[in-house]
Amino acid sequence: MKLEFLAIKKLDNKKRVIITNLVIFILVCGGSYAIITPCMADISKIKNEILGQYTAMEKKYQSAMKSRNTIETIKKIEPQIATIDQMFIPKNEQLQFITSLENSAASSSLKAVISLKSDSKANSDKVLFSITSEGVYRQQIKFLRHLEKMNYQINVTKLDFIRSGGVVTPSDVNSNFDSNNVTMNLDIETFWK
Fold first, then answer.
1. I want to staple 135 with a disulfide (CB 3.0 to 4.6 A). Which of 31, 40, 99, 139 is the partner?
2. pLDDT for residue 4 is more than 70
3. Which of 20, 53, 83 is the last residue of a domain?
4. 122 lies in which domain range?
């Protein structure tokens, strides 16, 4: 070691300054690298943790917004529940519903036969009816309008107009057949609650 030190002493001042600066530079770079590299690894690790937390918070926020929107939708629908509930026929008002069908037919000057279809299940909420009515075409249309205005949910599944010459076609409707008697076969479904 003494020999090396003596060798440096023998160098002129300019070379000695350059070597000293070079050694200091190497030591500073090595120290910086030794300090900065672990810090960069820690910063990268913290960055990944922050991104993970951000993603988790974003999911929680989206979930909270969905819940909030669902609650707002329910609040908007709640006033309509009573109206929707009235559309279904209470089980103890079944006879009243059938009577209202008969009264609608009678007020339309029609002869109507209302029958429960055989494929309606006894414990099902969905009930199928078959209605056959006879009368003038315009009165049949009036009866259909009465059905449409009823406060119950009624779905028409089949509608046929038949006259003595066969099934009524659109061209028949345009012709003068208002005074002719027409038979209407109507299948409807409704719901008990």
1. 139
2. no
3. 83
4. 91-191
